[in-house]
Structures are given as structure tokens and as C-alpha cells.
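Agenda item 2: iron/sulfur cluster complex prediction
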Amino acid sequence: MARTSFDVCIVGAGAAGSVIAAHLAKTNLSVVMLDAGPHRDPEKDFASDELEMEKLFWDEPRVSVGQDPLDLHRSTSGKGVGGSAVHYTAQLLRFHKSDFKTKTTEDIGEDWPISYEDVLPYYEHMTKRLSLSGPNRFPWQTFGEHFPYPAHHDLSNNTLKFRSGLEKIGMKHAVSPLAILSAPLEDRHPCINRGFCEEGCMPDAKTTPLNTFIPEALHGGVTLLPEATVTSLATDPSKRVKTVHYKLDGQKHEIKVKIVVLAAYAIETPRLLLHSKNADFPNGLANSSGLVGKYLMTNTNDHIIAKFPEEIRMYRGNPVQALTMDPYLCGQENGFKRGFILNSYGMRPVRLATLFLENDETCIGENMRMRMLDYNHFASFAMLGEVIAQASNQVALTDELDGNGVPIPKVTFSYHENDLLIREHAKETLKSIATAAGGEPLYHLRAHAHLMGGCRMGNDPHSSVVNSYGQSHDIDNLFIVGAPTFVTAPSANPTLTIYSLAKRSAEYIETFSKEIGVNGDS
Amino acid sequence: MDKHPKRTHYPTYDVMSEKNEWDPVTQQVLFSRIHPSEGSILTPDMKRTLQALAKTLFPSHLGEQTLSLTMVLDQRLTAKKLKAFPKGANLSKETIILKGLTFMEQEAITEHGKTFYLLDEKTRNELVRKWRGSDGDPSIWAEVHSDLFFSTVSAEIVKIIYSDPAIWSDIGYGGPAFPRGYYAFGPHQFDEWEAKPHGENLV
Ligand SMILES: Cc1cc2nc3c(=O)[nH]c(=O)nc-3n(C[C@H](O)[C@H](O)[C@H](O)COP(=O)(O)OP(=O)(O)OC[C@H]3O[C@@H](n4cnc5c(N)ncnc54)[C@H](O)[C@@H]3O)c2cc1C
Ligand code: SF4
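Presented output:
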């Protein structure tokens, strides 16, 4: 790359980074965006195969410890332009009003510095921009409405069983709001029910940064550098970020910048900040609060596998098709706080066999074979549970360096007792749904999904890392966007909120650039 | 002949018979899995040990498989697919597997005077049982505990087994589905190229 000076540098071209890039592409700012992974073409670089498509996940070393060490690869990461959103299952929900103030409403967790109403215009914008499909009347309207595309109509047996179970036990249910086309959009085709959403959508029916914000950013002149891993940030004597160091083709490079936007997800963002410490910022950048890396969260995502007399074939259709949000705040009546949602959730064989083994080490050999021979008779229903933020759940650095000379991160995680109560309640609910639908619930498979937190937002610089726009309290030209800024980990999937908050940050960054006199002449 | 207590529901289904319907990239991926090129990480001894180990851990699946586990694993190691650390560990999956295979041999020779793959089935089973449930003899398994090695290698073997089209046929999994997709929806409706519903389901 000839040019080494830009107004804005975005680190990470995932869900959040790509939204910022697309917005700033319409201004006169010069923008460069780097991503550690490649820029893939769905038709040429994807395959209908689980093992092959492992390449979409983050593959660098990470130490995962604690009482409940997290899976930091398969279920919670992405590497490459588009980020983890390339292979999300694309259930996109708004958060609930109470999600932004759990401290006030239930005396647990912390309040966000913004409310549902602050995010609402961005939710509405993203619902259209992402061409969400969903029911005409969604039973839980605050979580989504006015979907521009009709609800997904080809429902799998897995989903039909799930809905019939819910119906029988008196819970509401609906087809999920999805960032998956249910009808054509320009030259993109609707979903063909192929089922490999978590391996990347070859027909391009799923709406991801790769078919929205990335092309928009490129069209607007953003310079995109794939396979460029940012290794550190440096500040100048005025204590602003000035230089971004990165590695490309094994060579070290640097970019001079006026504004930096970190959008590298929940492990790499704090890792970069901690590693970039210097004499002016001895605890790492943006870390005067000591909270960089702290309050890391996930969502519990346990499955019940139930056996039915007839064939289900859970591989058919997109994995997540229907849901109930009835238990969203069920804790209040059941002796715990917050709650969960439930989904039908089909799995392909590698994922299912892996979860069998992870949950039961005796499930090898004949044991595994016997279970898997019934694969086509299994239905899989899942919960997505809120997880309470705890300071002790955190990203720190080890002394060992990776191939780029950056310390390998160490992630410590243990569940809060409330998380376990949610899990237990969800397990019993899932079992009763399966039984009511005529199945025999056989296996409870513990898993988790999504990462959030590590650079939480807030109004107080002593108890948060960034403000509600993602601007560092300590360094005004450093922004953090995406999952790391989350204060709580609601049970509604996070990414519609990630896209929406990124849009809100992008508008603010545009205004801020004018305030500090950045005018596109870098 | 079949020693297994349970049989496939789909004795005549062959997912590979549909391979011409798959997109070219997926065809290529499957072709190079079934006919893997030589990797460069596993030594011939390690391959023999791994094969014997797979036979001990998964006697169930071996007769039904078409893939060479050792070749595919070697290919994955060579392509640097096993750089990440398993949960709770600060060593890569690759290091854990390579060291573990060496330690297995070391202990087999110290204890029984023979390499693992030359031991009889009973002795192999006993050794594996001991290793899986413990840290292992500290004079051998110091750098990598035996149970960490076993959880890591089992997870890798499981992934390869369930990426084998022959096993897909056994379990009646439709396999790759692009560009064709699925169109028949509703109870007891399947696309005609999928495994035929087995007898008891024809209601
Ligand atoms: C299997 C799976 C299913 C999911 N399903 C859903 C769902 O149904 N609904 C939902 O709402 N969410 C879902 N998610 C979560 C969703 O994908 C994430 O919440 C979202 O993508 C996070 O956005 P982000 O921008 O913060 O990070 P990402 O999208 O992960 O982007 C981060 C990017 O930063 C890059 N990067 C990291 N470090 C560096 C560095 N040092 N230098 C350069 N680049 C770097 C990475 O390569 C990556 O591309 C799912 C996730 C997975 C893995
Ligand atoms: S199920 Fe639909 S959205 Fe998912 S990968 Fe297939 S075509 Fe794409």
C-alpha cells in the first residue's frame, strides 16, 4: 500500500467496523480498514462443509481458563472481512427496554448510559437496511416490528416440533426475525434452506457485511486491507493515538492517523489496548479505570436433544427458524433475575458429535456411534440465556508472544450463580416442550454463544472505558465499537444492537472529526 | 458379521452418488479429503500409533469409514489448522497431539517392551483407560497430561469421522446442499435425492 496516512483507521472489518466504514465513506474523510483475515467470495471461498469452513473462525492461540473456560473459537469468533457476522445464524432482535437498566429494575448488573429510546431510531434504520424478514405481527413488538420481508416460510420438522411443543404448553411462538432474504433483493436470491448458515452462505441469501456495508464502503473509496493484523497502537506527546502498527505478508507496517476505531471484537480489542501500554499510559490505552478487559460476558446456549419416533432431519433449513421470547424476564417469578429465550436450532453432524463429546467424555466409540445413528430422529431446541457481568471474568495478557510478537491473551471465566439458575430453568422448560411435542428429551448439551464486554460503556470514567458513542474517556480520538462496549449480555441475540450502535457511533465520529478539524486532507 | 449392537437405518443410501450436484468448491474439498495429499508433520511411527489409537477409541466406526484418519489429520496439521489451544491449556492442539503420541510410545515400551501399535487389544484398552482418566505417569506425561492429550485427540478424531461421506450415508445426513437446497417441507416430506425415509416411518 503506497499511502501511509489516513484520517480514520478502523481495526476489524466485522459487523461494527463495516458499518462505521460504510457511513464514513460518504464523508470527505480518508478511511482505511484492516482485517486480520481474508476478504472471501462466498461462491469461490465457501463450501458446504463443516470441517472446511472452520477457517471462518479465529484460529490464533488464546488461553481459556477459569471454572467455566470459554470456547473462544467455534461458537464465538470470526476472522476475515465481515467478521463473525459472515457465519452468524442471523436471528436479529432488538433488546428489551429493561436490558439497558438491569441495575435499576432488578438490582443486578449495571445500567447502560443509554436507553432503548436512544437506540430505537437505529434499530428502525437497520431493520430496513438489513432487509430483515419476519412475521407481520411479531408477538413481542418491542423486540422488532415492520419487517420489510415476509417471514421465512419453509419451516423444518425441527421447527414444527418446537412450535407444536410450545403451543401445547401454552407459550407463544413465532418465526424468527432473520437477516435472511425470504424473497429476492436485486440480484440476491432468497434462502434455499441449505442449512449451512454457520459455515457461510454460498447463495448469498443471508445479509452480512459482505453484501451490504463492505461493498458500500469500497464504493465510497474506503481502503480495505485484508490479512493485515494490527499489532499495537502508539500515542503522541499530546496523548492522542497517532500510529497504527500492523503486519501484512510477514512485514511490519505503520499508518499515521487522526482517529482510530477499534472494532476487533471482545478479546482482540482489550488485548490490543493492554499491549499498547507506554509511559503515558502504563496500564494500557484507555485504561485509567483499570476496566479494560474486565466484565467479559457470553450467553448460555444449551441444547436439548430429543428423540422422535418419526424422522426429523435437523440438517434441513436454516438452523434457527422460530423462537419464543415469553421467558425473557421469567426470573422474577422463579427466584432468579432476568431470563432467556428459546429457539429451534438444527445442527449438522460435526457440531452435534462435538457437543456430545464435550458434554460427556464417555461418548466415544460405540457410544457415539449409537447416538449418531439416530441423528435423523433427533430434534434440537436451544436456550439463549442472559449472563451477568462480573469483573473477575476478564481478558488479560500472558508472557508468551504469538507469531506477531503480541502477548497471547488469557481469558478467565466462571458463571454467576444467576446464570446457572437460568440454565436450569431453561433446561426444564426445553424438556417439557420436547415432551409435549411427542419427543423423548435425551441429552442436555451445555454450550455458549457470543462474546460481549471487556470495554464497557458508561458515563463515569472511573467505572467504564468508553462513553455511549464508544469514545475512550482517556483518549478522545480513540473509539471502541461493537460487542466489547456492552454493559449487560441480554438474552436477545446481540448483533442488531451492534449494527445499530455502530451507526450511532459513526454519526458521532463524523461530527467529532469536524470538531477536531480533520477535513479529509491526510 | 456385524458386531455392532445397532445398525444404520439407511443401508442403501450413498451420499456420494449425488456429488455431481454439488458446487465445484465443495466437490474439490471432499475429493481432497478422500484422497488426501501427503502431509509432512506426522512421522510414520506416529501414524501407526494414531491408527492403533483410533482403533482402540473408535473400533465402532473404522469398518464403516472411507477416510484415512491419519492422512486427514496430518493434512490438517500441515495446513496449520491446529494452532489454537484447547480450553484450559496453554499449548497448541498440534503440540499436545504430537507430544502425546510420543509419550504413548514411550510408556508402552517402558511398561510392555513393545510399541503401542504392536500390543494386543486388551493391553491397549487397559493403557488407554488408564491414560484417559488421569494426568498420566509424571515421569512421562509431565509436559502434556494424558487426559488433556486424550480429550484433544478424541475431539479431532470425532470431527474427521463425522466429515466422512461414508458416515454421512450411515446416519442419513443429506450432506452438501448447494446449489440445490431443500424444497420439500412439511411432516414426512423430503427431497427425492435425500435418503429415503426408512420403513417404520412410512405412515
Ligand atoms: C456461529 C455464530 C452464530 C451467531 N449467530 C448470531 C445470531 O443469530 N444473531 C446475532 O445477533 N448474533 C449472532 N452471532 C454473533 C455475531 O456474529 C457477533 O455478535 C458480531 O459479529 C460481533 O460484531 P463485532 O463487529 O463486534 O465483531 P466481529 O464481527 O467478530 O468482527 C471483528 C473483526 O475484527 C478482526 N480483528 C480482530 N483482531 C484484529 C486485529 N488485531 N487486526 C485486524 N483485525 C482484527 C477479526 O478478524 C474480525 O473480522 C453469531 C456468532 C457466531 C460465531
Ligand atoms: S439456509 Fe439460507 S441463509 Fe442459511 S446458508 Fe442456506 S441459503 Fe444461506
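Discussion summary: Chain B has one domain: 19-201.
Owner for follow-up: CH.
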